[in-house]
Amino acid sequence: MHPVLRAQEARAREVLGREVLAWVLDGAVPGEWDRCRLRPHVLRDVSEVSTATELFGTELSTPVLVGPTAFHDRMHAEGETATARGAEDAGSLMVWSMRASRPFEGTGWWQVYVLRDRSRTLDTVRWARDLGARALVLTGDTPYLGSARRSPLGDLDQSPDASLDDIGWLAAETGLPVLVKGVLRADDARDCVAAGAAGLVVSNHGGRQLGRTVSTAAALPEVVAAVDVPVLVDGGLQSGLDVLCALAAGARAVLLGKPVLWALAAGGAEGVAACLRAVSDDLASVMGLAGVRSLAEIDGSLLTQRLGGTGPFG
């Protein structure tokens, strides 16, 4: 874990109540990025290293984004307003949760569940689009909440009959690119893209829904190999080295969840910006050490199978 993130988590644990701490810590699943082994280049001019990227028409300073998490007002009085400001200050973007504690403010992407009341779903995504959302992130791995989480997470009545058809429906109704979050298999990846997905997010929901799911580090190469659209990934990323491994395995960007919540609790918008900058600066540093100057130069040739064992990187 990056030292800045470690310090922010320690501070957050001091200021948050026991119930909120339990909610943040619930379902933690290791990302297994430490299984990555690198094959760096040598004698490359890395006097200038750039982490700049572009996603669905948005120019960003970093591929380190804020993933959708609920109820930021549990972390800080300004809630998602502070998180979004911190992301913008760091040259990143935020994926707003459909369970946000503040109204969407027109920056970043909007996460969506398909609800039993389809008209409510449609009203919500059109509202987000009209405010300025650049993309929709359809969470596809939660047809309903696990029983232990139904009560604390509000009144969103997710639809168990959500299907691949809803990807094209949302895209047609809003004109926005739709990314599907929760993809862990190559066959699902291909099906989502065939149904109209403009991108995918490899995610196991942090283990907060179905337990014993494959790690995102293990699932990422399979999904990337199956499709020709941008693939993002979340799950246990805590340093620039983790991010470099994810990018080398084919991800276009990564999403941070818990580290951003800790940062928000520890320091509001400034804390979030500091978290994202720390990981992004660390990424630039390890890119230089690996002999790459831009995200375009990061590819699978940097990775090798883990010594003394098996793993997804080989």
Write a concise keyword list for the protein shown above.
314 residues, alpha/beta, TIM Barrel, eight-stranded parallel sheet, two-stranded antiparallel sheet, 9 helices, globular
Tell me what you see in this structure.
α4 (118-131) links the parallel β6 and β7. This protein has one domain (3-32, 54-276): Aldolase class I (TIM Barrel), CATH 3.20.20.70. The chain has helices spanning 3-15, 18-25, 79-89, 118-131, 165-174, 186-194, 216-226, 240-248, 258-290; strands at residues 37-38, 53-55, 58-60, 64-66, 95-96, 109-112, 136-139, 178-181, 199-202, 231-234, 253-256, 303-304. The radius of gyration is 19 Å and the shape is globular. The chain is an alpha/beta fold and 314 residues long. The two termini are 24 Å apart. The model is unreliable at 306-310 (pLDDT under 50). Strands 4-11-10-9-8-7-6-5 form an 8-stranded parallel beta sheet. It has a two-stranded antiparallel sheet with strand order 1-12.
Helix and strand layout, with pairings?
Elements: H1 3-15, H2 18-25, E1 37-38, E2 53-55, E3 58-60, E4 64-66, H3 79-89, E5 95-96, E6 109-112, H4 118-131, E7 136-139, H5 165-174, E8 178-181, H6 186-194, E9 199-202, H7 216-226, E10 231-234, H8 240-248, E11 253-256, H9 258-290, E12 303-304
Parallel strand pairs: 4-11, 5-6, 6-7, 7-8, 8-9, 9-10, 10-11
Antiparallel strand pairs: 1-12, 2-3
Helix pairs in contact: 1-9, 3-9, 6-7, 8-9
